[in-house]
Design brief:
Elements lengths: L1 E2 L4 H12 L2 H6 L14 H4 L7 H6 L2 H13 L4 E5 L6 H10 L7 E5 L4 H10 L5 E6 L6 H15 L10 E5 L4 H9 L3 E4 L13 H9 L4 H14 L10 H13 L5 E6 L6 H13 L7 E3 L14 E8 L5 H12 L4 E6 L5 H19 L10 H17 L11 H6 L6 E7 L4 H18 L3 E5 L8 H6 L4 E8 L14 H18 L3 E7 L3 H9 L3
Parallel strand pairs: 2-3, 2-4, 4-5, 5-6, 7-8, 7-9, 9-10, 11-12, 11-13, 13-14
Antiparallel strand pairs: 1-10
Helix pairs in contact: 1-12, 5-10, 6-10, 6-13, 11-15, 12-15, 13-15, 16-20, 18-21
Length: about 525
């Protein structure tokens, strides 16, 4: 990574990192880098395994590649990752960036409980020739387990004799999912490193197994990560250490009020921002602080951006970079700081994953927060559980009243605010285009930054920053008024009720915290209704 000169905020951050020996202490897995208050530090030590992950996983690469070759030879045509958050976002980046190698299965990532999305995936595959990867660190995550029971019933309705062999699991050792996989006769269980948190798990089984299954050279991917680990080592000069430089830039510019990290990427890298969103938002968004990652925002003229922006440009050699090159040059010309990262080829993503993980840990130290916990994520989960229990007792979910509209949110916006667009609908090209139109209107008409999260994915990602961060969010929740009913085997409710409870639970938590939130229910042609909504601001 290079930065346009070594700006004073970065130099000051590097000086602090150097004087406190932060890089060597990170490598020593010293928890006092982040907290030295006499409290139990085991949680830090138990979450630093990502430092050694590339080297550790290289030792597993042959066995994983052999598994992938066997899956291909068995005639599997689709691999469906059933996951959420850190278990699904790296596979999604690899799927979108690389595609599948010739002869290998197509990868599908399912991380939405929206009934239309679940059914769309079911229609797109031949379940008799599909391998389902149930991916969950804890082995208790509601969404992947619901997907498992749904697709287990789907496969059972085909000619497949051994239903369990259509499933594999990635989970930590000793989890309930590991036990369930044994009971159901899964083809294989990959036991992931327990000392790596979900959002730091790209270069562990959670990212590497799906990569192998679509025919990627996982040794090359891991060696790029291992090489970056070497470049981030304590014996490298601090101002030549890529991860430390990036972390110093994030923390240094944050101290100057540039707390909105905006990703601009080459087209092939567009989905990288989804993975980086979780890493950065969930790691730094707490204690009233936080770096807001903004991904896939429509580009606009330099006059549309405030002085709270920091830009990160991930540029892939040989991609169609003409528009992004011009855009970044314009932003730099008016004084916006731009962090540039050049990828020689797609396998450099292995290095990028590691660099951003290291940088986020460094930035966490500079912000004075705990970068490995997520104290505010559980609230929405707990609220959802209570709502589902209420539904099982009464047969209905509560009616929710919003005190805001989109227009009133915009009218109440203050300097430094952002709009979080939270969409509990099927992600499609038409919906993406409609949301992009809304984001462009917010940016060009009101200079309001925006984030986009499809629910419930973002609850395991930016949801932490929404509740634990600076409290400068304007929250627009967009839900369906007419979800179709899709049963979840073994439950008294279906995906329609589950996703409605998840959106309602998050709405209640945001409201309880006194945050500004508008809830809009759409019916019929969702993209068209959303486009009309954006015309009124």
């Amino acid at each position: 990574m290079s930065q346009n000169g070594l700006a004073p905020p970065i130099r000051r951050a590097l000086d602090r990192l150097s004087s406190d020996l932060i890089v060597s202490r990170i490598w020593d897995k010293d928890p006092t880098v982040w907290r030295d208050d006499g409290e139990d530090q085991s949680e830090f030590v138990d979450r630093l395994g990502w430092l050694d992950a590339p080297s550790e996983m290289l030792g597993e690469a042959d066995a994983i590649a052999a598994f992938a070759d066997q899956v291909r030879d068995d005639g599997i045509r689709h691999v469906v990752v059933l996951g959420m958050g850190g278990s699904s976002l790296c596979p999604e980046v690899l799927r979108a960036s690389f595609g599948s190698a010739p002869g290998f299965p197509e990868l599908v990532v399912l991380d939405s409980t929206v009934p239309a999305t679940v059914e769309r995936v079911a229609r797109a595959i031949d379940p008799a020739r599909t391998l389902f990867i149930v991916s969950s660190k804890s082995g208790t995550t509601t969404e992947p387990l619901s997907f498992l029971h749904y697709f287990h019933e789907v496969v059972a309705g085909t000619v497949v004799a051994d239903v369990g062999a259509s499933f594999a699991a990635i989970t930590d050792p000793g989890t309930p999912l590991e036990s369930l996989a044994g009971e159901m006769g899964f083809r294989h269980v990959f036991r992931a490193a327990a000392d790596v948190g979900g959002r730091y798990s790209a270069l562990t089984d959670f990212g590497i197994v799906p990569a192998a299954l679509i025919g990627l050279d996982i040794r090359k991917l891991l060696k790029r990560g291992e090489s970056m680990a070497g470049e981030c080592a304590p014996d490298v000069a601090i101002d030549e250490n890529p991860g430390t430089l990036l972390g110093a830039a994030l923390g240094g510019w944050y101290g100057e009020g540039r707390d909105k990290l905006t990703f601009i990427t080459s087209p092939a890298l567009e989905r990288f921002g989804l993975w980086a969103e979780q890493l950065i938002a969930e790691s730094t968004g707490k204690d009233g602080r936080g770096i807001l990652p903004i991904a896939m925002e429509p580009m606009a003229g330099a006059e549309s951006y405030g002085d709270d922006r920091l830009f990160a440009y991930l540029r892939l050699d040989g991609d169609d970079n003409a528009a992004t090159d011009v855009h970044m040059a314009e932003l730099e010309s008016v004084g916006h700081p731009v962090l540039r990262e050049n990828l020689a080829d797609l396998y450099d993503l292995g290095a990028s994953f590691y660099r951003w993980e290291f940088a986020t840990a460094v930035a966490g130290m500079l912000l004075g927060i705990h970068p490995f916990n997520q104290p505010n994520v559980q609230g929405s989960k707990d609220s959802t559980v209570l709502l589902l229990s209420e539904y099982e007792s009464t047969g209905r979910l509560p009616d929710l009243k919003s005190g805001h509209t989109l227009g009133s949110l915009v009218d109440e916006a203050n300097a430094g605010d952002y709009v979080a667009i939270m969409v509990y609908l099927d992600e499609s090209s038409e919906m993406d285009a409609a949301v992009a139109g809304l984001r462009r209107a917010l940016l060009e008409r009101h200079r309001l930054p925006s984030t986009l999260g499809y629910g419930p994915r973002f609850l395991h990602s930016t949801g932490q920053l929404h509740k634990g961060g600076k409290q400068n969010g304007l929250f627009l929740q967009i839900v369906g008024a007419d979800y179709e009913s899709v049963p979840i085997p073994g439950e008294s409710y279906g995906f329609d009720v589950l996703v409605a409870a998840q959106s309602a639970g998050d709405f209640q938590v945001l409201n309880h915290r006194g945050l500004r939130v508008a809830r809009v229910e759409l019916s019929g042609d969702y993209p068209a209704r959303l486009l009309s909504l954006s015309e009124g601001i």
